[in-house]
Amino acid sequence: xxxxxxxxxxSSLLQFPENPSFSALRExxxxxxxxxxxxxxxxxxxxxxxxxxxxxxxxxxxxxxxxTDLKADDIQNAxxxxxxxxxLVFNNGTVDFELSKLSKQGYEISLLSSSQPSxxxxxxxxxxxxxxxxxxxxxxxxxxxKVKKNQKVEQPVFLLFFNQAKAGQVIPAxxxxxxxxxxxxxxxENSISLDDQPYFFNQVVEVKAAKNxxxxxxxxxxxxxxxxxxxxxxxxxxxxAVFTSTVISLSGDMARxxxxxxxxxxxxxxxxxxxxxxxxxxxxxxxxxxxHTMPHSDxxxxxxxxxxxxxxxxxxGKIFVRQDAQKTNAFQQNNNILLSEDATINTKPQxxxxxxxxxxxxxxxxxxxxxxxxxxxxxxGLGKDQAKGMLLFAFAGEILEHITDESFKNxxxxxxxxxxxxxx
Amino acid sequence: xxxxxxxxxxxEGTPILRGINLEIKAGEVHAIMGPxxxxxxxxxxxxxxxxxxxxxxxxxxxxxxNLLDLAPEDRAREGVFLAFQYPxxxxxxxxxxxxxxxxxxxxxxxxxxxxxxxxxxxxxKEKMKLVEMDQKLLSRSLNEGFSGGEKKRNExxxxxxxxxxxxxxxxxxxxxxxDALKIVSNGVNKLKSPETASIVVTHYQRLLxxxxxxxxxxxxxxxxxxxxSKDLALELEEKGYDWIKxxxxxxxx
Lengths: 424, 253
Prior knowledge:
Low-confidence stretches of chain A: none
Mean pLDDT of chain A: 95
Low-confidence stretches of chain B: none
Order of helices and strands of chain B: EEEHEEHEEHHEHEHEEEHH
Number of strands of chain A: 19
Strand order of the largest sheet of chain A: 2-1-5-7-9-11-13-15-17-19
Structural class of chain B: alpha/beta
Oligomer: heterodimer
Radius of gyration of chain A: 21 Å
Radius of gyration of chain B: 18 Å
Number of domains of chain A: 1
Largest sheet of chain B: 6 strands, mixed
């Protein structure tokens, strides 16, 4: 019985849109997904994150959500005050150019269906994760952003994903970003729930960072307490390029973030920063993966978590250092503060090193708030909650520093402060 | 100002303080001395409200209020200040922001207007001079990477900013070289007034050459076993604590 339901769910999720582009790719993706099935908790990669069970429980209509009524006000409310850069609006995964603001200075932007880039699916390979395959089979259309060679895009491009169950509850979204040689660009992302109805947001972002480019991707997850989200973020990074990802997770029912940095040549610097502040029953799983394939590349990773109530965090950090990747420097750290006895963190570094001349370090800590520091602040006249908030913010603030755009950093900082002021 | 009556306190069931009696009036400086493990730091911690200690008996009245009923932050706002033996390093908390929050919390409790940025900065600069604090330290995280001497100076600087009526210095002298000791003591002396009082907890007489106490109390096994003038401190310096221990131990047999 259960199996029958699961198969139904999967085949519903794998519905092609009308008049699909990329048919051959979609067929392959569908075949793979059907063969692989949805991941149960017996699957190593998903053993702490029962996304399949969540889907069965929360989602009743597995067809793709229709675009919803989106107003200019919704967009203004989502953007940071004082934000002056470009923004691109996704309405239930469908791009809405009319509500977007795109200067296109230094970059080109097009629908995937019109530009048909051959790069699509080359970075986020369908076999990496079944949800990437499901996205590939089912996304309606997506966006292709190309930052042109030698261009510095001065203002960031903000990707705004507005989500709301409408007719269907499944929201696939697809983004392909190509940063050409010597180019520099910054991307911001926020996913916004328009109401409290459950939906399943299934996102794939592919990034190609060409030689000597410099790019940033900062992301805020602050969706409703009913939302389910899986994101596959895959990046291929070439010689001497720098790529920095920052992911701030504040709310949701269950979110799984797969983040991969493939360092495909020498001189690459890959940075991954993450912060998760969880309360209630929120479950956030960050699976990160950095693949060092050639000599003399560096990766830095720092994820921090504060968990309250019955929330759960998962951190899994893979570092591969291939045989050719001599002189690799790879640093990974995951620190957690648990504010409640019912909160859980599962943290696991996973290092596979085949080269012999490398520097790799990893560490993880899980603890409570430092009582001595708390007492110290109280003896200076700070109320207990205020002192706690100050200490927690000191812990979290280190991650926020990596958000490049000031107005976005302020927006996220305010949200974080508000949460920590009331001790999450 | 402060009356301690028959104070008993224990940690994890082990009694540390076994009946402390002490009366402190405005304008006075009281030195609490005693061998290691006698309960000196416990007394300081209990007065400041450290949660690990359980008060099992007795009372502490501060300016007419039962101090033991107050949360640590309210004790601070009422005017009790504890200079820590081991000031805590708090990475990520900016010294200046922390201090401004603290000062304004205390002012609010005392019915005073908060200090604006300009006034706060000028007050800060003035008070920094008291302990010859380097302004650069204040642009760092609280106590992070400070030397031992810098941490202790920072304690006295915070004390100057918060303007307490009762200051408790918990082994502020330990680990300080003579120069730092002079600076710290000098700061404490300048803050002395007829309206304020201090409790100076120390293991060494040396500090009392600079901060002259009105009374010296010797703590042993959780009780004050001897009180006297500053001459008592000199006697202790000369003869050590053994004669007092013997006196007490013989009397109790």
